[in-house]
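Hi support team,

I'm opening this ticket because the web form for multi-chain structure prediction keeps timing out on my end. I have pasted the exact lines I submitted so you can reproduce it. The total is 1010 residues across two entries, so I didn't expect it to be a heavy job. Is there a limit I'm missing, or should I split the entries? Thanks in advance, R.K.
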Amino acid sequence: MLIPIDRQAGTPLHRQIHEHLAQLIRREILADGERLPAARQLASEIGVTRSTVSQAYDGLQAEGLVRTAVGAGTFVTRTGLAPAPPHRIARRAAFDWERFLADHAPTTEDASLGELFAAAPPEGPVINLLRPIPDPALAPVAEVRRTARAVLQLLDADALDYGSPWGYEPLREVLGRQLATEGMDRTDDATLLVNGSQQGIDIIVRTLVAPGEVIVTERPAYKGALRVFQAARAQVRCLPMDEESLETAALERTLRQDNVRLIYVTPTFHNPTGATMGPTRARAILELARRHGVPILEDGCFRNLRYEGTPVPALKNFDDEGLVIHLGTFSKTLFPGLRVGWIAAPQQLAQRLSLARHDMDLGSVTLAQMVICRLHEQGEIARHLERVRAVYRARRDALLDGLERHLPEPVQWTRPAGGMSLWVRLPEGLGSLGAVRRAAGRGVLVAPGSIFDPAGHDLDGFRIAFSTAEAPDLVRAAAILGKALREEIDNRQSHVAAAPRLPVV
Amino acid sequence: MLIPIDRQAGTPLHRQIHEHLAQLIRREILADGERLPAARQLASEIGVTRSTVSQAYDGLQAEGLVRTAVGAGTFVTRTGLAPAPPHRIARRAAFDWERFLADHAPTTEDASLGELFAAAPPEGPVINLLRPIPDPALAPVAEVRRTARAVLQLLDADALDYGSPWGYEPLREVLGRQLATEGMDRTDDATLLVNGSQQGIDIIVRTLVAPGEVIVTERPAYKGALRVFQAARAQVRCLPMDEESLETAALERTLRQDNVRLIYVTPTFHNPTGATMGPTRARAILELARRHGVPILEDGCFRNLRYEGTPVPALKNFDDEGLVIHLGTFSKTLFPGLRVGWIAAPQQLAQRLSLARHDMDLGSVTLAQMVICRLHEQGEIARHLERVRAVYRARRDALLDGLERHLPEPVQWTRPAGGMSLWVRLPEGLGSLGAVRRAAGRGVLVAPGSIFDPAGHDLDGFRIAFSTAEAPDLVRAAAILGKALREEIDNRQSHVAAAPRLPVV
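Hello R.K., no limit was hit. The queue was backed up. Here is the completed structure from your submission:
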């Protein structure tokens, strides 16, 4: 028990100890009946004589706050307790943090999401299709337990020390082999392990992009990346997508006009749309990036969640000159709780990233990386992936069926070949918030377009994440969304035509 | 095995598969004798027909790169192997990352440390006194193994999902009780768990300090914090310390002159000096901060490593209006490998910090926090702390004895009552690099003054970290340092008097 002592105060030590303990008893931090440390022990812990502590205990006893049972110790008792002020500190005018933080620390909380939860019926079932994350019900808990138990046999002092900012070496090797097998390794690339791909985006953006510089990405864009761009005080240009990815004409225009520092794309099973970039587009975008000297951050977090067709090459597969930084993670294919992702980047850059990463948090939890490594070596990750791909494929199919049956005429949607979400395109100018709120009121939560715009402007579309809901719920959700959309469209048509909004995706 | 396939290319699928596998065999990513997946299995994995895969395998066999043993499978063989280009990619002119990164991404590597390691004798023992970290030899490996095994029984799908950006709730409660027991809780404070206190500094600085704004800290300063300040593009003012902490007169002057956003201090067992701030100074600094409306970040990472005297109150103990953000960690008292630290901050600010933290890496490893929590509940942390305090106290004493015996007259040093390091003060104008290099050449590594200055200017002092070396080595190191210092001083006196340098600490 660490009792702070003010040796510069006039108050005697025993009195300070007495008063500190009395406070803890009054505030019930020390509970009724709880035993205080023996005087000798407390004395040694806080560096005073035993008699000083005894004097303090005597004082507490006189006050009726403890009682001493000879041979058993000193116990808290509340008999002497007058009603006491509930809090330790008589607050002066508190520091005005709101004012201090105004103009700083952009608030990144999404008001619109809170609003949706509030709109959902307080009782009755809610179908939450907000998050493209692994279904926790599918988490391989038993396999992780078994594997982690085996890993604990290998735990040594090294694993409890600071790790390398590059990550756990055996897992780096595993990933290196995997990248090589997929033809994604360049001889002068290096692999860096991070706390999930979100930290990867953060490290890369902080290293490459100074405040005010320009980042290009898709519209709609992945919100987690937008938040990183905002925290880095970057300017963001969201360019229109077609069914594959960024439109090359728009990209070329922007690269010509702006001094772009980074292109951030998710070429395979894009979040939110599920769109996938074919090899021709990949080559075209790489060629533009090369010509303008702009690196590409390729977010591959959904890459392995393919439900049909053949594996599509990554941008990294075509990266002849080391322009592409590839980002991967175990969070989507396996589970996110061990926080392991990776960056494959040209060695020169990787070196800088490892320094930046060291400065941010001095490295990852070695034990977590050991568990992931062992799961990989035992084939558990491949087995798990096969299992969940079948489940998510069936959920996607159920959702697509439901949408086909229930969504009204003018509404369209993407048909992703993988990933965890699709995008519903609404008639131009409709916006998403009206329909999304109506659906929330009926217990179906989907992510409104505003989430996917850097300024939070609504878009004419919304995201449905299908990975965590079972097929019947997805069909039910489609019916409710269909109803909400019909109402919203009817309602709009009965009013004056809305002003044009941001371009439709 | 994920083989990327370009459906837009003219090359037939079987040919693409053939060529990809041939590459893997040539590059020995597939080893001699390794078995390829059965055609049926690979076909299903990559979404092609079985006959496509068989055709690819036939092609490889014709080329002499695999052989098929009927009933046993297809195996890699290197008989058909002509000498092949070692690398997958015919590199075009590689992207010039050095140029791209110039003016960005401050290089935070310490050239001076690399130089020291290079100066140390390649053979023969090196006494490394560079790092104030727990001695890995003292890590409670068996206790962690036992505890983690017990924790794995509780592992569930929740623990494998994303955690709250606030951290694992039961551990937050444990820390809340601990802060209350030490009288450091304010009723409107909240506790936030982070990946070690380094991430805590990073989150706080990114949230509070915009590029170009001013942070005040000590000279010499903690290097890990300086690096965060640099990454945030803040202006840093290092103010002189006396034997306790920042000098109040200098602080007051700076608060008047500059628009200071944050004061960063380590009041208890400061790194590098080991200095500790008494209650009178604490109140004075708080009063100055209050008057100028500047929050204080109190780094308490060494607080519990006290070797003598009574527990000293933290700044947080006097924080009436919620100006103090207190930072703690298990990395110094226990071990750093599970990456758990905490922030105690006023609720309004803590809310913002949790959002910023979410955007940085979506939260910590739940399993790691569960293990720390259980270690705490079982009293392992308290027991470990008692054990290591005795060891580190003995090491400090040995070092102090050695310095007393061996350092020459004009040299002085601090006598820390806790922590893991002390500071050797050199005569004004001497600088540390000369002596530190001489000592390195004789196998003793200590951290030169330049490490503790934001611009990397040398200071007239160096740090000795005593936590990881045994007593006899510390005495030996003191003797070698004494010799190096005498030589350096003699050498300087025989030259023209050096120009004045930065003020001595």
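A quick check on our side: Chain B has a mean pLDDT of 93. Let us know if the file doesn't open in your viewer.
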